[in-house]
């Protein structure tokens, strides 16, 4: 390592060139670590389980527009027909789909005295006795709804449910002592509309992926008939989703008094909801790839040029006994010095940029371990990039020293 | 002289093809990335109704839960108003020139022909909507106060729907079947797409198409057409009443409310009017929170609703830094290239070229690289915008390269290249010719 001294002194003769590369590396580190942080955070959010059997679930939305049709009977016919399709495990009516961006939020009170700002908000899912199974939820304790407990709610009649099944997360929030099952909660203030928690299921997200109560959900034993909108969630046996969707769409489209608005696999639904996050992940990934490419190419270009300029000196060194490896090592060490300086500046840059992005746009703090990882990666990038011109330099014949040009 | 320099530049670029290609590519990528994110940002933050945006105000009233934390700014408040407040204001004599109350709904259109019925989004509103928002008409025109008062079964449709239902003919007086009801066409709107769609921006689809169906608010409530947009309630509707009546009398917010206020004085008077209205309501037991009313003009309203998302801003910042890296890259490459030209420069100097001439000639070369980078960058930006359109839903009005952006892209690339080249060019023009000639 005794050549660091001379290499460093040689560098000071072309300060600007070295500084430009160092600055480039610094900015690259700052951008890459911050972009990677945002990407991983979004990807983590998207990967959270919704609670549904995502690969084997489909969503159907239809709108009835003929007021002469008996909507309640149509619900019954639809459910009978959907459940009869080969490959269907369960089908249920619902008025909201988890992680769809649109749903019902309601609140629960754990005592008649509780003020409204302390009530617990949750995602309200109006389903029938097949709701749990159609959503693919596991009962942790308690029991499912019985068919005779399902109420019908419409613009004309508005009965209140007396039983509910809640997610484990909501149960724990309502009753931190763990005694949620069998306990009473109220849908309104002052002890109005009591309900008994008859069951607890493992996990399901509400309709809004970015809400802070995303894991608080509950099943409401109600057939919702507001306007003509009728929504179904259908779970199939593994591998049967496509055939079930085709058969279900064919059945639903037969009725001329309605239109079929949506026939969609749950995975597609989820992607639509997260489309902005997915876009952010893809755009930032593209930025990282192209940026490292540009920086790498820049290093190659500059080193290539400096090799061309120093042909004579390199030839002289070779003539004086330096091995090819010595020449390659010279360029690698030179690049290592410049890159290290750049990474040192970049470390401050990365932290500074993260501070700016976090205070302005709340992107969150970059985990500290991203920084050494990014530094090692960029350091390696520099070394790999400089290898090509360095090997070209090593091939300069020692005889060059003896020529005048 | 200039064209001679350009020819020299092109031949110099040809002499170092790899280095030149790297520079053009780096500049192009930087410009492309920045122009992609900036175009989206620029169009998102555009003024959807430039000549009137300062006179159109969205109204917010603080009717929320008294137990919730205090309201500090318009952002803390629901962006919509209750049905009853909207009705009270629209029937009152206020200082506003015009007011309109709006909500979104869905209907099924049943065509006369064999075509299958289809789903359409609806705006239920008052006749003032069309004048306030300068909606252009192809046939007919807005309905009037009288139709609002009569709860008339009339409809205004968009050009696209008119093409679909009536082959683009003048359809005034013909009828359209919505669900199982018939409405008479009184107007056909010409192409109209304010971007963002400012009159209803809270639903997360601020860049969607405008609706193809507009109906009298009064008629829509009679049916009732249920709202399809965001509906928020802090307290449940009174369940001793039929559901729809309870909903209309509730504290649920689901209507957009706009006022046209031509002068700052009028705006101040209207704000006072709203404050007094809330005080009157307090007297009958509503509005239990401290008095808060907000009016925001269109530009303020887009801010309040964060139409330009933080994601967009982060992308613009990061892609600007990316452009900076590309420019640094180019400076480095230019330095390398120009310092390698020492011999040629020395020769030209010895032949009598002044320093200024050398400077100008090399600057032209840098400029040529910049223009090439700009052209390639525009190509990249076009590709980038295609990608953005695919990645985001509802961005179709946001991803065209308009002429302003095109010119800006090439201008920016040239400027970036010239800035990047200024120092290398200066350096090369300062080279002492004698020393360099001697070593030859």
Please outline the helices and strands:
The complex is a heterodimer of chains A (405) and B (440).
Chain A: H1 4-13, H2 15-47, E1 57-64, H3 71-84, E2 88-94, E3 104-108, E4 120-127, H4 131-135, E5 139-142, E6 151-154, E7 163-167, H5 168-174, E8 184-186, E9 194-201, E10 217-225, E11 229-236, H6 241-254, E12 258-265, H7 266-273, H8 275-309, H9 311-319, H10 324-361, H11 370-394
Parallel strand pairs in A: 4-10, 6-10, 7-9
Antiparallel strand pairs in A: 1-11, 1-12, 2-11, 3-4, 5-9, 7-10, 8-9
Chain B: H1 2-15, H2 17-44, E1 56-61, E2 81-82, H3 83-90, E3 98-110, E4 118-125, H4 128-132, E5 137-140, H5 145-150, E6 154-158, H6 159-166, E7 175-178, E8 181-189, E9 213-216, H7 217-222, H8 243-248, E10 253-260, H9 264-283, E11 293-297, H10 298-304, H11 310-339, H12 342-350, H13 355-391, H14 403-430, H15 433-439
Parallel strand pairs in B: 4-9, 6-8
Antiparallel strand pairs in B: 1-10, 1-11, 2-10, 3-4, 3-7, 3-10, 5-8, 6-9, 7-8
Helix pairs in contact in B: 1-13, 2-11, 2-13, 2-14, 11-14, 12-15, 13-14
